[in-house]
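Hi, here's the filled form for the chain we discussed.

Project: internal
Contact: R.S.
Residues: 239
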Amino acid sequence: MTCVRCSVFLRVDDRARSDALIQDAKIARARQRRGWWQEPDFREHLAEPLRRLIEYEAEAVAIRHYLIYFIPATLQTTEYAAALMENWDAEMSAAQMQIRLKARELRRDALLARLGTFDLCVLLDESVLMRTNGRPDILAAQLRELARLAGQDRVSVRMLPFAANAPWTNNGSFDLLSIGADDDEGAVLYRENGLHDELVEERATTARHRTRYERLWQAASTERDTLRFLEHRVAELEE
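And the returned structure, exactly as it came back:
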């Protein structure tokens, strides 16, 4: 019925095109609803690219993370996120830290609630799994949670070992989100650099990063081997 309406009112006869228009309409309606990230406290302390990223996270059909320093923000435990945030205590007030931690918690809750309805791939440099930030117990708990999600096949996790013969990207960490369909048409790239971040929707850039991601993904350890590494690393930390 919906496709018939598209054909009648919009003069669109192609099924794929009508489906795309319907998806665009759904996204537009979702953006009109006021999200928690639009509240004054969050708007004051969260950069505009990050607020846009949060909107896209709620709509994405696929999310790909490439991290060289830490676990993805949306999968961080509260303790792990707080330990990371302490590194910026000279540049952020306690109030700012609390707002950012709350935002990270809300993003995590929203993503976990959607698991199974979209593809989530996490590609981690081995250094991420080795860096304790001074608290081995916090990293152990974080890796246990990551292993739990990976063990349930809810998240695809791969590790790039130090010994990997891989085409290393010099772009640093980045996130790729696919909106509407898992292709280059609706891809969004997010990059964070300390307290600054950017959201890129230019197709050539997102396509180039997608190609690099796929090459690194193939060079990484398999999901099964990565899960074994996570379990072994947790045991090491708990000792």
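Let me know if anything looks off before we file it.
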